[in-house]
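Changelog-adjacent note: as of this version, every example in the card shows the full chain rather than a window. The one below runs 125 residues end to end.
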Amino acid sequence: MKLAHIRTAAGIATLSIVMAGPALAQLTAGEIAGDLRGQVSSVGVLITVISFVLGVALAIAGLMKFRAHSQNPNDPSNKMSTAFVLMFAGAGLVAVPAVLGTGIATVFGTGAQQTNGTGGFNAIR
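Full-length structure tokens:
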């Protein structure tokens, strides 16, 4: 029974190879680079969205830790320091898009392409 399945799979694979047309590249290197540039700017927007969502989630978790500490200050799992760390981490993640373009200019100089996290690399000129 196994041999029949193997032969069927081999036949289907052979037919798909024979029937497939040639894969011809129809884009130039410049067009590929332009497409890649557009995708990279989309990654900047994705980083912005993820940092905002995680920042707000951490800030809410910090507020919940503050509330848990106020309800039971003797519980060792509800330390005030954990609430402060969560709040500061959330604020830092929310601030990532604002400092994204400044960080690129600091590391790579003023001639580098910059992004503000929402408009992509073409947003700041």
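Structural remarks: The radius of gyration is 26 Å.
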